[in-house]
Amino acid sequence: DPQTVRDCLTIMFMCGMYDYSGEFAFKVGIPSKSGVSGAVVSVVPNVMGIATYSPPLDEMGNSVRAVEFLTALSGTFNFHHFDGDNSDKLDPTQDFLHYQYRGRKHRASLSIASANNSPRNSLKRSYSGKSEMGNFELEEIKENSVLADAKSQLRTFRILSYCAAGDLDAIKRSFLAGHDLAVMDYDSRSPLHIAASFGHLEIVKYLHEEVLVDVDILSLKDRWNGTPVDDAKREGHTHLVQYFKSQNIDIPN
């Protein structure tokens, strides 16, 4: 249940590390629960769970190595609860794409270099970014375009996942961060489609009344020509059907 998960994570964030909880929340910002056995369970919401075990304890009753590890982890990656999208830390949910596409650039650079008289010098110029690097600049632009598209797809997946899980707070954070919520997946299914399918009334209301105000719900059609209203009816969410009717939406029989 999303409400139970949220409540548990809140308790872990506020008081899961005994008397060190406040400072841990400030410095590390990862919801965690410590035990006097030396075990610590931590959760990075929507990313992963972590379990550490090392019996030597500090004066607060927390595992010394677990605290050091989680502090270093939060300092390297944007796992602190209040790290924004503009954080200078690494985002492991996106940076693997960078490494993947960097590898593609390497292969592309090799093909460019092989067409020139001096492959070694051409490859060196490509990576140094100095003079005579017209081909490299073109490849860099193409790489940035592919990477931006990949990040956009990942952001769309996250937003749709929030809608499926009923995580209204995460959707609001995405909207306040400037992310477009009028997105669709490969089946042309929008956040409203997903929320309606899972029966999440509060999310449907938020999207319809505060975000997608000028969007005609009946115009949102997936590749099967279905609308969010169709999804609500198909899944038997009568409370959503009643809501759509209260919004003067002409619901077909």
Shape: elongated
Question: What helical percentage do the residues reach?
Answer: 55-70%
Quaternary state reads single chain
DSSP strand content: 5-15%
DSSP strand tally: 3
Order of helices and strands: HHEEEHHHHHHHHH
What's the rounded overall pLDDT mean?
80
Q: Low-confidence spans: pLDDT under 50, at least 5 residues?
A: 95-142
Structural class: mainly alpha
Sheet having the most strands: 3 strands, antiparallel
Cα gyration radius (Å) = 24 Å
Can you list the strand order of the major beta sheet? Answer: 1-2-3
Task: Provide key terms for this protein.
6% strand; elongated; 3-stranded antiparallel β-sheet; 253 residues; single chain; mainly alpha
Description:
The chain starts with a helix and ends in a 7-residue tail after the last helix. With 253 residues, it is mainly alpha-helical. The chain has a 3-stranded antiparallel sheet with strand order 1-2-3. It is 57% helix and 6% strand. The protein has 11 helices and 3 strands.
What does this entry show, briefly?
The protein contains eleven helices and three strands; from the N terminus they run ααβββααααααααα.
Indicate the topology.
Elements: H1 2-15, H2 21-27, E1 32-34, E2 39-44, E3 48-53, H3 64-76, H4 92-114, H5 119-128, H6 134-165, H7 168-176, H8 191-198, H9 201-211, H10 228-234, H11 238-246
Antiparallel strand pairs: 1-2, 2-3
